[in-house]
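Provenance

Sequences were taken from public entries as deposited. Structures were produced by running a predictor on each sequence independently, with no templates supplied. The record for J domain-containing protein from Crepidotus variabilis is shown for reference.
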Amino acid sequence: MKLSEAYEVLGIEEGSSMDDAKVAYKQIALRTHPDKNPNNPDATAEFQRVGEAYNLIVKCLDPSSKPSFGCGRPGCPCQDDGSYEEEDYNDFNDLFFRDLFEHFMRSNAGYFSRRSGPRPFRPKPETQEEYQERSRRLRKEQLEAAERRKREAIARKERQANEREQVTDSSETKRLDAEKRQKAKVQEKKAKLDKERRLSEERARALKKKAQENRSAVFVAARQGDSVAVKKGIWENAVDAAGGGGEITLDGASFVMNKHEDAKETLLHIAASKGDLDLIEWLDSHSVDPEERNGHDLTAAQIAVKHGHVAVECPNLLKLAVQSCQPEIVDLILYKEIVSEDEITEAIVWASSASGTTVLQGKAFQTQASKTADIMKLLYRFGDIPDDVRISRDNETAARSKTHRTPKASPEEVPKPKISLSSKPSHSKKHLSRNSRRGHHGRGGGQSAHSGHPNH
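Predicted structure for J domain-containing protein:
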């Protein structure tokens, strides 16, 4: 460092006295001490620079003396590594007065040796007023420094508290933001579920409406007698022909504006009222319930009778019994007289036909071969044999007689009704007279009734 730079660092003019340098140094040293500038990382370097400048000026002004303050000397402030306390100021004053005393002694020694050489440059001694003024300034600076440190400590505490509050506020803000995001996510999910539920309900409602419209269209076509549209609607639009409850379904009441007076009327009731036998058979093949009743507690068969449609046929009970291949059932039906003569004749014709023979022979196993013959004997005994059936039977009998002779059946071979005496009804006169009109072809009359082979 140059001398001019040293004066500039201490803030004094070149050629100033030693006292001015000391005063300036003490002021700057107190101001730039690291303990007084804890937040300034360059405080130590600046304090050392001030000490270096002061030592350079002291060497120039008084080469014989060592610097009172500076790096390397015990008690120098730059070597302190602890806190800056009041004892530092006391040591500073002691050093200051000791330096002043040494300077005074050097001045006296020079006075006595003036005759031996030229008079050296001596700084002007400090007066009492200057000393008091300097002491006052130092005390003032010390008090100001203490107050400044106190304010800095308070400010530091406030800053730390503010930082803690900021951290707390930041954490609280983050927590609140997380809660808001969570609530927003829940609301979004809830809104999405509500939207999906509404869409699902709308789709279900649309499907129910479409199904009810298709069903109503089929019923309208049935009431208009358009069986083709009825079949098409049931087949293509998946309308349930066997579904009970009439035209309106349980979920379709709100979609029908013009409701029919009979809510329980089915397609089978409508077809029966129209006398559409083809549609009735088609509906029957699609598993409709013939026993279902309308709003007036009537079945489809009763509706057909009510409207006079005789084309709707009722099943032959005796024919169904013959198809079962159970002689006991056939005997019971004939003995109870719950079928008419026409139904007996119809059963005989069917049993003698090719289709009936196929059915009876198909169901008659080897162990049940005699059941078919017993059924035919019962039918011949209780019913009138048509001429074409009699001729066919005679031809078959003649053909069998050529191959082997078959003995005539005795009256004991005719099966007897397996009915208990308690359940056997008494025959009325009308029943006997009816049998008498039949002659030997009637029930139990004539040789043919017992043998099962009429002679005519």
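The mean pLDDT is 74.
Residues 317-451 form one domain.
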